Amino acid sequence: MDIKELNINEAKNSSKNHPWEYARAKIVRKLLKNRLFANQESTPILDIGCGDLFFLHYFSSIVEHPYPIAVDTAFENQIICALKEKYQNFSCTFCQSVGEVDLGEKKASIVFLMDVIEHIEDDVAFLSALKQKKFVGAGTLFMITAPAFQSLYCSHDKWLGHYRRYSSKLLKERVAQAGMNVVDDGYFFFSLLIPRFLQKKIELLRKEKPVTGIGGWNGGKTISWLYEKILLCDYCVTSIFRKIGIKLPGLSTFVICKQQ
Q1: Nearest Cα to Cα of residue 4 among 97, 108, 115
Q2: Which of 9, 78, 160, 218 is deepest in the core (most CB within 10 A)?
Q3: How far is it, in rounded angstroms, from Cα 214 to Cα 222?
């Protein structure tokens, strides 16, 4: 969850994240299956623009010997204290900028940019500088997700400070310009395209454009479970199509890459 969508008061309790976030986390896990090294002494994991720590906490729980580093420009003392209180049994390093990350001679196993680069005006320059960091080595993977299709840009994007949305083609072009090799790419959340399309059309008809985020999700257990399962079934279906060479579009796009 983006820090802007995070309610500090709710960050201190055990309120649930949106089922979209649970589904995305599990999809990323599937996409990265067998790509991470196993049985290491430690697995440095960087989550840049990590927001409310949800994804980093989840991914660290499924990796052997994780060494998690949380990076977000919004990390002020109040937010860090609230997150530490919420994730009391989770040990990670907090950094307010990439420049603060210090792994010594170690290299990051994976760098996550989960719906981050749309917030950056010069995304190519950012990625180019990132891959030059000392903690990036030849084996470091980059997992990048972003909202898909500029035609679906709406008030929610504007409120979150998004400069753009990406097609799979555009995202691959940007990482290639930054000197990275794409090892996998595609879309997910095909079923969310129509709801977002309708949302965009409704916004065009309204004079006032109400903006809400995914923070403070208050759906019940049954609704949350159903929502998550629908999205995971959506991914399973699109995965089957991918295996036969058909890449269905989706509301999110991704690339997995390494530096050239």
Answers
A1: 115
A2: 160
A3: 18
Alpha carbon distance 214, 15 (integer Å):
12
Provide block-wise average pLDDT over 10 residues at a time, the chain (260 residues).
Answer: 55 66 95 73 90 93 90 92 90 94 92 96 96 92 97 89 96 96 95 91 73 60 91 96 93 91
How far is it, in rounded angstroms, from Cα 186 to Cα 179? 19
Q: Are 52 and 6 in contact (CB under 8 A)?
A: yes
What does the block give as tokens for 214? Answer: 């995914």
Residue showing tokens 């660290």: 60
